[in-house]
Give the backbone structure.
Amino acid sequence: MARTGLISPEEISEEYHDLFSEDYVGDRNIIRLLVNDPPLLESLFTSTEVMTRHFTSREEELIALATARASSAEYEWHQHVDLARDAGISTSEIRAIGGDDFEQFSDDERTLLRYTEAVASAEVTDDTHADMAAVYDSPQLVALEMFVGFYIGHSHVVRAEGLSFEEGEFVGWTPSDQQIEKIFG
């Protein structure tokens, strides 16, 4: 559950019911928690859209997964395993990120994943930054860094609230196809 409590659409003003739409990841516990303050949730959605405007949905999900893994953020990993599949990331690639093995990714995606990990662990070196700057421009770098920071902050809220998984169990860092199917269908 959550220490502060989870809100359903019926408990808030109708003007905020769209926050529960599939456009905003639906009726997930994180939405039901954050809608305790609807204007705050709306601003987070807007901020996320601005931070991710430079990236494809695949890149966005790679960043989310790598951030979750690097910061041991189980709730975020769990949610993004499901979302990543919709963005065209295979279960093999998800397991690879969970196992810290980026070899099957393209050079550019490996650079993105390594840089994301470095930002999430606060261990960016001049070399890591230079590698990333050779592939992505300055606005993309800053947006990625802010997006990683957003997810790390997000994971702290989840932990502070004791937020539970909708499906009751953690999918795992290197989930099998069967585990993913069992939990997410």
The two ends are 22 Å apart (CA to CA). The chain has a mean pLDDT of 92. Residues 149 and 162 are 20 Å apart (CA to CA). The longest helix spans residues 138-161.
